[in-house]
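Tokens for Lipopolysaccharide heptosyltransferase 1. Go.
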Amino acid sequence: MKRILIVKVTSLGDIVQALPVVADIKRAFPGVQVDWAADEAFAPVVQWSQGVDRVLCAPLRRFKKSRRWSDLKAIWASIGELRAYHYDYIIDIHGVYKSAIIAFLARSSRRFGYQSQDLGERGASFAYTGRFGPRPQGSAWHGMRISASEALGYEVEGPPIYDLRLPAVVPQPFATQDAPVAALFHATSKAEKKWPLTHWAAVGRDLSERGFRVVLPWGSDGELAEALQISAQVPGATVLPQMSVTEVAQMIGACALVVGTDTGFVHLAHALQKRTVMIFVATSPAHCGVETPYRSTSIGDGRSVPPISAALEAIDYVHAAEPVLAMQHGSAAA
């Protein structure tokens, strides 16, 4: 076994939670080269993984919106990079048309993907020469580890290893303060996943009373307006400037606590071993949640709005005086 390609194209949280597959493969096959194919928008996240040897990316999302000739040329150029090596195995743990096309274009006679009933888009099945077993019940993140192990013939062992190292941290104005920083990720990709602004304000006030400096990131004009509404009700809260994915990751690295909805940056906080509370309103915590004793936890049932008290109890839990049973071999920031 010399070289393996993992295909997981989007999105931020899914890519973060798929990264432990790399550590699993490298434990099972010492010396193997592991490449990863992702959308250009999320390539930096894969590049932070110390186990990935080569990151292949193309502006797929951007081209879908722009239809610019320059983006199309970049996609064509990426195909040449994709075909530069022959792979012993290709593992598509995404399961949609775009990931299947990438798997099909890459050079390998062994391309593994999900069974038809488990695919995000059933037509993606054309690309595969082999299939994983049925997706196991429970966590989607553990399921990806199981699927890769079935294709390559090894056993999954131990907790997930993310093995992240961020770029050198640019000094953040808020990080120079004496108070520990708590980031509230109130924004969501879908309206049904939102937690009420009144709840965020209540949690922010509680954290401020505990001695935290509360910061509010955002990514769109609507999210900025909501951040300003929350900050107006939280003493000392700071609405951050708009930041890149890397800058947000560095900000997370400077935090003592992250509280947020089921979004990619909160998954990243968990992977970076930050004390993390993830709030579920309309998605399944059993399927998509995070859980590490005394460090990360998920609240909500995925069918209703969790009360403020549940969030405060979860914050108490991740800040308990018990020893943090974190992944000692997990993640680090430079």
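Residues 322-334 have pLDDT under 50 and may be disordered.
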